[in-house]
Amino acid sequence: LGAELDVTLSRKLRAPGMPEVAVGAISELGDLYLSPDASLLASKSYLEEEARFQRAEISQRKALFRAVRPPARVAGRTVLVADDGIATGSTMIAALQAARAGGAREVIAASPVALPGSAETVRP
User: What is residue 25's predicted lDDT score, i.e. its pLDDT?
Assistant: First the structure.
Protein backbone atom coordinates (compact mmCIF):
# COMPACT_ATOMS: atom_id res chain seq x y z
CA LEU A 1 0.00 0.00 0.00
CA GLY A 2 2.94 2.33 0.47
CA ALA A 3 1.27 3.58 3.62
CA GLU A 4 2.76 4.76 6.88
CA LEU A 5 2.36 2.00 9.46
CA ASP A 6 1.68 2.42 13.15
CA VAL A 7 -0.02 0.69 16.03
CA THR A 8 -3.03 1.80 17.97
CA LEU A 9 -3.46 0.57 21.49
CA SER A 10 -6.84 -0.59 22.63
CA ARG A 11 -7.58 -3.05 25.42
CA LYS A 12 -10.68 -5.05 26.12
CA LEU A 13 -12.60 -4.64 29.34
CA ARG A 14 -12.88 -8.19 30.66
CA ALA A 15 -16.14 -9.61 31.93
CA PRO A 16 -16.05 -10.61 35.62
CA GLY A 17 -14.86 -14.20 35.94
CA MET A 18 -14.57 -14.54 32.14
CA PRO A 19 -11.34 -12.79 31.11
CA GLU A 20 -11.66 -13.80 27.45
CA VAL A 21 -15.09 -12.14 27.11
CA ALA A 22 -15.08 -8.41 26.33
CA VAL A 23 -17.79 -6.18 27.74
CA GLY A 24 -16.18 -3.16 26.17
CA ALA A 25 -12.80 -1.65 25.37
CA ILE A 26 -10.69 1.42 25.94
CA SER A 27 -8.48 3.20 23.42
CA GLU A 28 -5.07 4.73 23.97
CA LEU A 29 -6.80 8.13 23.95
CA GLY A 30 -8.80 6.99 26.98
CA ASP A 31 -12.11 6.75 25.15
CA LEU A 32 -14.34 4.01 26.47
CA TYR A 33 -16.67 1.80 24.44
CA LEU A 34 -19.15 -0.37 26.33
CA SER A 35 -21.04 -3.17 24.60
CA PRO A 36 -24.83 -2.95 24.81
CA ASP A 37 -24.95 -5.84 27.29
CA ALA A 38 -22.09 -4.59 29.52
CA SER A 39 -24.41 -3.55 32.34
CA LEU A 40 -25.95 -7.04 32.35
CA LEU A 41 -22.55 -8.67 32.88
CA ALA A 42 -20.72 -6.21 35.10
CA SER A 43 -21.47 -3.59 37.73
CA LYS A 44 -20.57 0.06 37.26
CA SER A 45 -17.88 -0.16 39.95
CA TYR A 46 -16.37 -3.26 38.32
CA LEU A 47 -16.26 -1.51 34.93
CA GLU A 48 -14.61 1.57 36.45
CA GLU A 49 -11.93 -0.57 38.13
CA GLU A 50 -11.35 -2.63 34.98
CA ALA A 51 -11.04 0.57 32.93
CA ARG A 52 -8.43 1.91 35.39
CA PHE A 53 -6.47 -1.33 35.13
CA GLN A 54 -6.55 -1.34 31.32
CA ARG A 55 -5.59 2.36 31.15
CA ALA A 56 -2.48 1.51 33.20
CA GLU A 57 -1.66 -1.37 30.82
CA ILE A 58 -2.04 0.94 27.82
CA SER A 59 0.12 3.58 29.50
CA GLN A 60 2.97 1.08 30.03
CA ARG A 61 2.80 -0.18 26.45
CA LYS A 62 2.48 3.33 25.07
CA ALA A 63 5.68 4.33 26.90
CA LEU A 64 7.52 1.43 25.23
CA PHE A 65 6.15 1.97 21.72
CA ARG A 66 6.26 5.76 21.67
CA ALA A 67 9.78 5.93 23.12
CA VAL A 68 10.95 4.53 19.78
CA ARG A 69 8.62 6.37 17.43
CA PRO A 70 5.94 9.05 17.74
CA PRO A 71 2.40 8.22 16.63
CA ALA A 72 1.49 8.59 12.98
CA ARG A 73 -0.59 11.62 12.05
CA VAL A 74 -4.13 10.53 11.22
CA ALA A 75 -5.86 13.89 10.76
CA GLY A 76 -7.26 14.24 7.27
CA ARG A 77 -6.14 10.75 6.24
CA THR A 78 -7.80 7.47 5.43
CA VAL A 79 -6.94 5.11 8.29
CA LEU A 80 -7.03 1.34 7.92
CA VAL A 81 -7.27 -0.47 11.26
CA ALA A 82 -6.37 -4.15 10.99
CA ASP A 83 -6.84 -6.87 13.58
CA ASP A 84 -6.09 -10.58 13.40
CA GLY A 85 -9.68 -11.41 14.30
CA ILE A 86 -12.85 -9.83 15.65
CA ALA A 87 -14.59 -11.62 18.51
CA THR A 88 -17.01 -9.12 20.07
CA GLY A 89 -15.81 -6.09 18.09
CA SER A 90 -15.10 -4.03 21.21
CA THR A 91 -11.38 -3.42 20.69
CA MET A 92 -11.87 -2.71 16.99
CA ILE A 93 -14.62 -0.19 17.76
CA ALA A 94 -12.41 1.53 20.36
CA ALA A 95 -9.53 1.73 17.84
CA LEU A 96 -11.80 3.09 15.10
CA GLN A 97 -13.25 5.68 17.49
CA ALA A 98 -9.70 6.77 18.40
CA ALA A 99 -8.88 7.25 14.71
CA ARG A 100 -12.02 9.34 14.25
CA ALA A 101 -11.17 11.38 17.36
CA GLY A 102 -7.74 11.99 15.82
CA GLY A 103 -9.42 13.58 12.82
CA ALA A 104 -9.23 10.73 10.32
CA ARG A 105 -11.10 11.56 7.10
CA GLU A 106 -12.19 7.94 6.71
CA VAL A 107 -11.76 4.82 8.84
CA ILE A 108 -11.74 1.27 7.52
CA ALA A 109 -11.81 -1.89 9.61
CA ALA A 110 -10.01 -4.96 8.25
CA SER A 111 -9.92 -8.47 9.65
CA PRO A 112 -9.66 -11.92 8.09
CA VAL A 113 -12.24 -13.42 10.46
CA ALA A 114 -15.10 -12.28 12.68
CA LEU A 115 -17.64 -14.07 14.81
CA PRO A 116 -21.17 -14.06 13.40
CA GLY A 117 -22.75 -10.69 14.15
CA SER A 118 -19.50 -8.97 15.11
CA ALA A 119 -18.91 -7.46 11.67
CA GLU A 120 -22.41 -5.95 11.83
CA THR A 121 -21.58 -4.51 15.27
CA VAL A 122 -18.40 -2.88 13.93
CA ARG A 123 -19.81 -1.69 10.60
CA PRO A 124 -21.54 1.52 11.84
Answer: 97
